[in-house]
Amino acid sequence: MLTDLKARKLSPSEKPEAVKTIAVTETTYFRWRAEYGGMKTDQVKRLKALEWENTRLRRAVSDLALDKLILTEAARGKLLSPARRRACADKVRSELKISERRTCAALGQHRSTQRKPARGCDDEAALTADIIELAKTYGRYGYRRVTALLRHAGWAVNAKRVQRIWRREGLKVPQKQPKRGRLWLNDGSCVRLRAERPNHVWSYDFVEDRTHDGRKFRMLCLIDEFTHEALAIRVKCKLNSTDVLETLADVMILRGPPAYVRSDNGPEFIAIALREWIAAVGSQTADIAPGSPWENGYCESFNSKLRDELLDGEIFFSLAEALVLIEAWRRHYNGVRPHSSLNYRPPAPESFVPHSGGVVPWAPAPARSESARSPTPNVASETVVH
Question: Rounded CA gap, 202 and 190, in Å?
């Protein structure tokens, strides 16, 4: 339009009428002429595009500067939970006086989540208190075993909810032991000879510890590989092949002889008298390869749990105290402790109560007194814990 008016070479008196024909005021006409006079159409379009791009870049820089200011004002580190992002967004809005929309966009918080008040469960405080109490009692249990104990106590709780509370309270999750990359396929390995039923394969091994005054004592741990039950833990200052034989005899009187007995190649386990006695009762020995403790994996796993959950956290002032505490832990291990490989149930629950709807979850019965137990023969000269 400016080009057309300029090409017509109008006199000053004719310009007002010509300006009205293009539907603009004289002020607009003179402003356009001052800004775009002498430019061609493509040049004007290019100028407009550059102005629009400049405006867009200024807005982007402004948004980035505002985001940086918001994140600087917010707490350092990742805001992993909606509750933390909600509290942080409120703080940023109060400090910087900016809109909720801009704050939520910078912090990654949805506006509906920001506005919706958190609705906690009515039993959240009681559940948290029980979780903390179980974590104190069983310091080496993770949230999965704690979930199993809570369900046993009557809580209808999800493992994810327990994990959320576990992390929120800063409770320590026990680190997993690194797994072996391979199990050797020797004749006595736990891959080739796998337990298929109770009383099929027993395995045993020694564990050592010390009392408060530095006296060393040993423990002979005997387990059933199929049920994962700790059949016996014999505690003495010194253990030899005779003690191993007597421990096996005591347990076999109650349960019968197993098909196989797995062990390493220690001198107590390869004694001729012990091997002949095992063969005489109808069992077979399954020795692992020398220097391959992973082939006796079930017993090694039990030994690590014994040390991790009991021995590393107790100070024994006498051998008698060690015997009592180890026996109490063995009963807890068999009757109460959830086992992940058994769907978080104990290997030998002391009792269960059937009802019309099926079988209720396992529940430990109160410990029986020694006088209430039925007498069982014992061929050993020393005390053996079963």
Answer: 11
* Residues 6 or more apart in contact with residue 148 via CB below 8 angstroms: 338, 344, 345
- Collapsed DSSP state (helix, strand, coil) of residue 261: strand
List, in sequence order, the alpha helices (H) in the chain.
Answer: 2-7, 15-21, 26-36, 41-73, 82-96, 100-107, 111-115, 124-137, 143-152, 159-168, 241-255, 272-280, 297-309, 319-335
Exposure of 258 by Cβ count < 10 A (0-12 exposed, 13-18 middle, 19+ buried)?
buried
Q: What angle do CA 263, 246, 292 make, to 5 degrees?
A: 10
pLDDT, one tens digit per residue, over 114-146 is: 888 777 778 888 999 999 989 888 888 888 989
How many whole angstroms separate alpha carbon 118 and alpha carbon 120?
6
Neighbours of 180 (CB within 10 A): 13
β 260-263/230-236 pair status: unpaired
The token pair at 246 is: 């007597």
In angstroms, what is the C-alpha Rg of the chain?
39
The two three-digit tokens of residue 291, written as one number: 């220097």
Low-confidence ranges of the chain (pLDDT < 50): 7, 177, 179-186, 188, 352-386
Distance CA 149, CA 346 (A): 10
- How many of the other CB atoms lie within 10 Å of CB of 86? 20
**Short-list 121, 124, 127, CA closest to 155:** 127
Question: Whose CA is closest to 136, among 103, 165, 172?
Answer: 172
Question: For 20-58, what is each residue's pLDDT tens digit?
Answer: 666 667 677 667 666 666 566 667 677 777 788 888 888
Contact 231, 223 (CB under 8 A): yes
| pLDDT, averaged across the chain | 77
Q: What angle do CA 154, 352, 365 make, to 5 degrees?
A: 80
CATH 3.30.1490.20 fits 201-352, yes or no: no
d(CA 323, CA 270): 26
What is the Cα–Cα distance from 124 to 270, expressed in whole angstroms? 56
